[in-house]
Design brief:
68% helix, two-stranded antiparallel sheet, mainly alpha, globular
Length: 151
Amino acid sequence: MKVDPRGQRFSAALSAVVLAAVLVTGSGWLLAAQAAVFGVSAVLGLSYAPYGLIYRWLVRPRLGPPREMEDAAGPRFSQGVGLVVSIIGVIGYAAGLTPLGMAAAALAFVAAFLNAAFGLCLGCEMYVLIRRIWPRQPGAAPPEPDKEVAA
């Protein structure tokens, strides 16, 4: 599946706003809500991502078609990373470990901001790196040299 990269940046901008509000207010509940957004995106796919739906229904019709589309695997993986980091933050806030909650929210904020402002998706970069170094699945035949495709 291919996705519009502008939608990913829009979603990252909304996430950055929510995460900034978490850092300002110290609200574990708001971080839990953002974790739910990450969870829906990671588990159900980017087609059902709440911020992606807002982009698809309200923003994209006002823009021209994207110059290029990107594979959804990297952004979906990054939503999973955001989910894990947010859950750690929610646990920190719930357990009374406010510095842990703030650190996790700050980490998620930095990643979302970098994606929104500069198009640098840290989770996507992690995905590419993992795909390069992860060993082949057992039983998978290596591609023939003349038919090899770039990963």
